[in-house]
Amino acid sequence: MAKQRKIPMRKCVATGEMKPKKEMIRIVRSKEGEVSVDLTGKKSGRGAYLSKDKDVILTAKSKKVLASHLQAEIKDEIYDELLSLVDGDNK
Questions:
Q1: Contact 46/70 with Cβ under 8 angstroms?
Q2: CA neighbours closer than 13 Å in the CB half-sphere of residue 27
Q3: Between 38 and which of 11, 43, 62, 80 could a Cys-Cys bridge form, CB atoms 3.0 to 4.6 Å apart?
Q4: 46-75 burial: b if 16+ Cβ within 10 Å, else e
Q5: How far is the C-alpha of 85 from the C-alpha of 46, rounded, in Å?
Q6: Cα separation of 74 and 55, whole Å?
Q7: Are 64 and 18 in contact (CB under 8 A)?
Q8: Would the pLDDT of 72 be above 70?
Q9: In this protein, which residues make up the domain named YlxR (predicted)?
Q10: Phi and psi for 10 in degrees, rounded to 5?
C-alpha cells in the first residue's frame, strides 16, 4: 500500500485561505530589504504567499497587505509581475 504524501499548505496573506503551496505565489523580502517574486519557493528571506488570482492580487495591492506583512515598500513592478504571472497561467 502506497503511503500518501503530505501536501504542504500555505495561507494567502490577502484572503486568509489555506491552499496547497503549488497553487500560491511566494513573494520574498531579503535581508537587504529587496522584495522579489520567488518562483522556486526556495529563496532565503521573509516570505508571503498570495493566491494565483487576479482579484486577490489587486486586493492585496489596494489594502497594502504585502507591505505590512513583509514590512517593506512594495513597488508597482512587483504587482505588475504578479499580474502577468497570473494572466500567463490562465491562458
A1: yes
A2: 34
A3: 43
A4: ebbbbbbbeebbebbbeeebbeebbebebe
A5: 21
A6: 17
A7: no
A8: yes
A9: 10-82
A10: -135, 155
**Which grid coordinates are listed for 1?**
500500500
Q: Which residue has the cell 515598500?
A: 73
Q: What residue spans define the domains of the chain? A: 9-89
Whole-angstrom Cα distance, residue 83 to residue 91? 13
pLDDT in tens, 20-58: 999 999 999 999 999 999 999 899 999 999 999 999 999
The identity of residue 23, as a single letter, is: E
pTM of structure: 0.88
Cell readout for 17 is 485561505
Query: Which of the listed CATH numbers 1.10.150.120, 3.30.1230.10, 3.40.50.720, 3.40.50.300 matches domain 9-89?
Result: 3.30.1230.10
Residues 88 and 84: their CA atoms lie apart, in Å, by 6
